[in-house]
Structure formats: C-alpha cells, structure tokens
Specification:
Strand content: 5-15%
CATH class of the largest domain: Alpha Beta
Radius of gyration: 28 Å
Number of helices: 7
Largest sheet: 5 strands, mixed
Structural class: alpha/beta
CATH topology of the largest domain: Rossmann fold
Helix content: 40-55%
Number of strands: 5
Strand order of the largest sheet: 2-1-3-4-5
CATH architecture of the largest domain: 3-Layer(aba) Sandwich
C-alpha cells in the first residue's frame, strides 16, 4: 500500500512549507510513513482532472492513501471536492485531511463534512474578494489613484543615455544606427524620441 501527500502550491514557498509541516505532523500522529509528496503548481481555478491530482488518483490502487493539507487544497468548489471523493470511494482509496484531522471514507457522513468544509472555503474566499473590493473603493473615495498612474512617465529607461542619443541624432544618424550605438531596440528609441520631443538631424534613416 502506498501513501501519497498532495501539495497544490502557488509560487509562495512559505505556503509549500506550511502544507508540508501540517502533513508531517498529521502523518506522525496517524502512523503514516513513507509519504510520497506530489507537488502541483497550478491555478486554483483549474479543474482537478486537468491537474496532477487527476493522474495521481487514476494511478492509485485499492487501499492506497492520499493526504491533503486541507479541503481547500483538494479543489476550490464543493462539486469538485465531491467528485474527488466519489472517485476515491470507487477506487477504495483512503483520504486524510491534515488540518481538519480527519479521514474521509466515502460514507454519507464524510460527504456531508466535506461539503460543509468546501462551502466554508468558498464563503471565506468570497469574503476576501468583498473586503478587497471595499478596500479599493475606500481608497478611491479617499482620493488615492488606483492602478498605473496616467500620463507620461517621469523617468524613462533611455533618459540615462539622452546626451548620447541627442549627439548621434544631431550628427544625422538615423534611428536604427543610433539604437545600435546606445544598445536599444529601434522601436524603443523611436518611441523615446517622440515622447521626449527630441530633434532629428538632417538625415533620417528609419
């Protein structure tokens, strides 16, 4: 019988460490050993069958065990959580949830518990979205500008080479030749010249 630990992770390394720590603690209490960790870096909105979790569950055999850090690491909707549990029940797999300190065996009681936990996760995410929206609205009402400031940037990347650019352009060099000399893309230099209103020389080679 094999024991697997599934980690659905983001780019936050601290999140991964927290999941592993919780799973190790649970495994020690529950007597689970020789855990095989499976890391899955995905978007939370990606359906579970499209993730490593889908192929992992399909490849597991009767009596194998899979440990999740928490219900919300299985999926982000109650429907998907129930689909996962249904597959595990069909394959007679053992499902452990570390944070909630429970084992789900496919029984009606387990499904009810998983549903409630999944709903709680959805409600919490909705609260987070609502708080974020309210905070942004409050900042806007207070006069704070949201998003990227409008208007031209105060400092541009090529400002440091402006003297060189003006010199080469004044000599009659075109955009392409000047771009090579200042190590910039012709399109970038052309945009810079327009934004800064620089004067071209007598010869223009685009």
């Amino acid at each position: 019988m094999a024991n697997y630990a599934y980690l659905r992770i983001s780019t936050d390394s601290q999140d991964v460490n927290n999941q592993k720590h919780g799973i190790y603690e649970y495994a020690n209490r529950s007597g689970l050993s020789d855990l095989v960790f499976v890391e899955d870096t995905v978007s939370g909105r990606k359906k579970w069958r499209q993730r490593k979790l889908g192929s992992l569950l399909e490849g597991m055999a009767q009596g194998d065990t899979i440990v999740f850090a928490e219900v919300t690491r299985m999926a982000r909707s109650t429907l998907q959580v129930l689909e996962i549990l249904e597959l595990c029940m069909e394959k007679q797999l053992k499902v452990h949830i570390a944070k909630q300190n429970m084992q789900l065996d496919g029984s009606l009681q387990s499904k009810i518990i998983a549903t409630m936990l999944g709903l709680a996760g959805e409600i919490e995410r909705e609260f987070i979205r609502m708080r974020t929206k309210e905070a942004l609205a409050a900042r806007k009402a207070a006069g704070h500008q949201l998003g990227r400031p409008k208007g031209p940037a105060k400092t541009l990347k090529l400002d440091a080479k402006r003297d060189q650019i003006e010199k080469y352009l004044g000599m009659g060099l075109g955009i392409r030749a000047t771009a090579k000399l200042v190590d910039a893309a012709p399109s970038t230099l052309s945009d810079y010249v327009k934004r800064r209103g620089l004067q071209m020389g007598s010869v223009l080679h685009m």
